[in-house]
Design a protein that fits this description.
Elements (H helix, E strand, L loop, with lengths): L10 E3 L2 E2 L4 H10 L6 E8 L2 E6 L2 E6 H6 E2 L1
Antiparallel strand pairs: 1-3, 2-6, 3-4, 4-5
Length: 70
């Protein structure tokens, strides 16, 4: 299941990042978004969602959310 399938307010553990784009993976890693880390969908909006990772909130788009496997 990916981040788009997650329920708002529920904490999940990131299983993997499903992408062949090394820049994207490096960007997510810099945010603290990598395998084994907890992630929570705070809210959804058109074109993406707001997530909480390590006490910080980020707005990510739909394509990025699809790449995060939980």
């Amino acid at each position: 299941m990916n981040l788009l399938d997650a329920k708002e307010g529920e904490e999940y553990i990131i299983k993997s990042i499903l992408s062949n784009d090394e820049e994207l993976e490096a960007f997510l890693f810099s945010l603290g978004c990598y395998s084994g880390e907890p992630i929570t969908v705070v809210s959804r909006m058109k074109g993406g969602c707001v997530v909480s990772i390590k006490d910080a909130r980020y707005n990510i788009d739909t394509d990025l959310a699809k790449a995060i496997s939980i």
